[in-house]
Specification:
Blueprint (H helix, E strand, L loop, with lengths): L5 E8 L2 E8 L4 H8 L18 E4 L2 E4 L12 E3 L12 H8 L9 H16 L21 H7 L10 H12 L2 H4 L4 H12 L1
Parallel strand pairs: 1-5
Antiparallel strand pairs: 1-2, 3-4, 3-5
Length: 196
């Protein structure tokens, strides 16, 4: 008897459960866009190199073009559509809007999802390749433009809006109480435990 090549999975996306039957090879990106009409997440290189498809899975950045939908079952997935609280934009979204952190806008959803995770990772004390003192007791390094650029380096912008993107991330990070999304508190606690 041949093995089945599809499964029924439950995906928890932006606080809502979606059950669908997917081929085992279906990426999370294709499930979001093609099956659930969540088209805010963009398909760029489809090779995990541009970051346009970045979403949060259990609060961590994930390039959804490399994540299989079946591997995301029962995990908390946040897409750009789940960032705002009703009509109120997430502080990162607002900073991108206020500081023109976009031009064509194609990469913006992935940039924003990454920026939310960057701010949470930094607050939890996670070092980057640009961090001078990586000892846990040193605490979070200053979130300098160099730190932001390094931490956001997995997200490409063909328009070249990088200067404004860095400014937007810095502005949102300067308001830590406003920057936490609905999963932010849990994610920061988990990240702090991982560093300790």
């Amino acid at each position: 008897m041949p093995l089945s090549t599809s499964s029924t999975v439950t995906l928890n996306i932006n606080g809502e459960k979606h059950q669908l039957s997917v081929d085992h090879r279906t990426t999370l990106l294709d499930a979001l866009r093609e099956r659930l009409d969540l088209t805010g997440t963009k398909k760029g290189c489809d090779q995990g190199q541009c970051g346009a498809c970045t979403v949060l899975v259990d609060g961590r950045r994930t390039v959804s073009c490399l994540q299989l939908a079946v591997a995301a079952e029962d995990r908390e997935i946040t897409t750009i559509e789940g960032m705002a609280q009703g009509e109120r934009l997430h502080p990162v979204q607002q900073a991108f809007l206020d500081l023109d952190g976009l031009q064509c806008g194609y990469c913006t959803p992935g940039q924003i999802c990454s920026a939310v995770a960057v701010i949470q990772e930094h607050a939890a004390g996670w070092p980057s390749a640009a961090t001078d003192d990586v000892r846990p007791e040193a605490g979070p390094p200053p979130l300098t433009p160099e730190e932001i650029r390094e931490r956001m380096s997995g997200n490409l912008c063909r328009c070249g809006a990088y200067v404004s993107i860095v400014e937007a991330v810095a502005r949102a990070a300067a308001r830590p109480d406003e920057t936490r999304d609905r999963t932010g508190d849990e994610t920061q606690d988990e990240a702090k435990e991982a560093v300790a």
